[in-house]
Design goal:
Largest sheet: 4 strands, antiparallel
CATH architecture: Up-down Bundle
Radius of gyration: 38 Å
Number of domains: 1
CATH topology: Outer membrane efflux proteins (OEP)
Shape: elongated
Oligomer: single chain
CATH class: Mainly Alpha
Length: 504
């Protein structure tokens, strides 16, 4: 038995060493990449330190991209995402499941060992014989211990292709985790700055309420002196209460943003309160606080976006599955061995004559399956083509995201300057209307009209500032934040540990 086992091991090793891997080897699909972005870079879109073109591994803040906004409140919220967000917890669990699938695939490279013991008893009835029944006979067979091993050498690379597919899938899952993290980080920043935008609007409305209160007192005094009519007083009161209502309305939207942020950081809304922050000159264009945005070239976008990296890894996994399907066309070699002790008596069970063993290979080949293997192979090829198309579409969408945000920032910057001029003219118009009304030249309706135009233009300026800073957040998201493909785990990184040690 020992010589046979050694011979089988030697033959198997020779077969394994000479084994090939069927199916296409992976090559990253080509994608349409422009030499430059269509949109011109805005003045604040530059090469900040750590974001040099052509060196995507040098990352600003090591992935903490939100720190470019220099807002301690935002920084504190972003740090809580990894700890409590349940969407990230689900993505992380999915990644661990993908790693476990690699362990399952790796097991196909090694023999399966079994062991056991049994006691089998049987009896024969005497009435079933042709002779006169003389009573039943009973025997018992003891088999203890016994062991067996089976192994199918990976001659055609089916197992290795399966490992390749599982590894690429795990890497894709890791990229999905990073993409989910980036998405949540961006959503927190967007909600936070929109919340601050509501703070700026409320601050503007509250200051306007105070101005309208002064205007109402002036009108009431003029009415008491017989200079103004009661209509002027009622109009001033209406304007005041309407503005107060607008100020109160901002609290509704603000609370909704606060609740959304609480859920994103994994807390019930009742456990998060974000204090209002005063805004200096909320209608000024500079109040948008637009940070220096990292400059990249289009080709780098393929390395910076985790969603692109994830889809590329899915292409690699689908390519490996083609090899798995093709391997079914080849014969399967299986080696089996078993041995143990067997006896009908416990007294003789552990003696040398009670030993038994078996050893031998088996070869099987599917001769006719009525197109099953062909269908599976064609399905694997179609799945590969689908993942390639999805990958290329993801790349195109990424370019669209960047172009959208670049154009938004460029246009909003020009619009903010124009709106600042409109605010100045509206404020000047209000000053003139107040002076004319005080001098008795015009009616209070002219003042009301000027107040309305001034407030509308100031609110529009505040909203433009909010849109500009949220567009900056969206642009950084579209560029992949601080992530790049070098952070994608290697095959060794995603392979689970064996025997208490990692395989890397």
């Amino acid at each position: 038995m020992r010589r046979g086992a050694l011979l089988a091991i030697a033959v198997t090793a020779a077969l394994t060493n000479s084994a090939c891997i069927v199916g296409p080897n992976y090559a990253k699909p080509a994608t349409p990449v422009a030499a430059s972005f269509k949109e011109p870079l805005p003045p604040n879109f530059k090469e900040a330190e750590g974001w040099k073109q052509g060196e995507p591994k040098d990352d600003l803040h090591r992935g903490k991209w939100w720190e470019v906004f220099n807002d301690p409140g935002l920084n504190a919220l972003e740090e809580q995402i990894d700890v409590s967000n349940q969407t990230l917890a689900a993505a992380e669990a999915q990644f661990r499941g993908a790693r476990a699938a690699i362990r399952v695939a790796h097991s196909g490279l090694y023999p399966v060992l079994t062991g056991g013991a049994s006691v089998v008893g049987n009896g024969t009835s005497g009435s079933l014989t042709n002779t006169r029944a003389i009573g039943a006979t009973q025997t018992a067979v003891l088999t203890v211990p016994s062991a067996g091993a089976t192994w199918a050498p990976d001659l055609w690379g089916q197992v290795r292709r399966t490992i390749e597919a599982a590894t690429a899938t795990a890497q894709a899952s890791a990229a999905d985790l990073e993409n989910a993290r980036l998405s949540i980080q961006g959503e927190v920043a967007l909600d936070y700055f929109q919340l601050r935008g509501q703070d700026a609007q409320k601050q503007l409305l509250d200051s306007t309420v105070k101005a309208y209160e002064d205007a109402l007192r002036l009108t009431q005094n003029r009415y008491a002196q017989g200079v103004a009519s009661q209509v002027d007083v009622v109009q001033a009161q209406t304007q005041l209460e309407q503005t107060r209502a607008q100020s109160t309305e901002t609290e509704v939207t603000r609370q909704q943003f606060e609740h959304a942020i609480a859920i994103l950081i994994g807390k019930p809304p009742s456990q998060l309160t974000i204090a209002m922050a005063p805004v200096a000159a909320p209608t000024a264009p500079a109040a948008a606080n637009i940070p220096a945005i990292p400059g990249v070239i289009p080709s780098e976008l393929l390395e910076r976006r985790p969603d692109i990296a994830g889809n590329e890894r899915r292409v690699a996994a689908a390519n490996a599955q083609i090899g798995v399907a093709i391997s079914a066309y080849y014969p399967t070699l299986s080696l089996g061995a078993s041995g143990g002790l067997e006896s009908s008596s416990l007294l003789s069970l552990f003696t040398w004559p009670s030993r038994f063993w078996s050893l031998g290979p088996s070869l099987s080949e599917t001769i006719l399956d009525f197109g099953r293997r062909r269908g599976i192979t064609e399905g694997a090829q179609a799945a590969y083509d689908q993942t390639v198309a999805n990958y290329r579409q993801t790349v195109l969408t990424a370019f669209q995201n960047v172009e959208d945000e670049l154009s938004t920032l460029r246009i909003l910057e020009r619009e903010s300057g124009q709106q600042a001029d409109a605010v100045r003219y509206a404020e000047r118009s209000l000053q003139l209307a107040n002076a004319q009304y005080t001098g008795g030249i015009t009616t209070y309706l002219q003042v009301i009209t000027a107040q309305t135009f001034a407030l509308q233009n100031e609110l529009t300026a505040v909203q433009l500032n909010t849109r500009r800073i949220t567009a900056s957040v969206s642009l950084i998201q579209a560029l992949g934040g601080g992530w790049d493909v070098s952070k994608l785990p290697s095959g060794k990184d995603v392979t689970p540990a064996y025997g208490g040690k990692n395989t890397k």
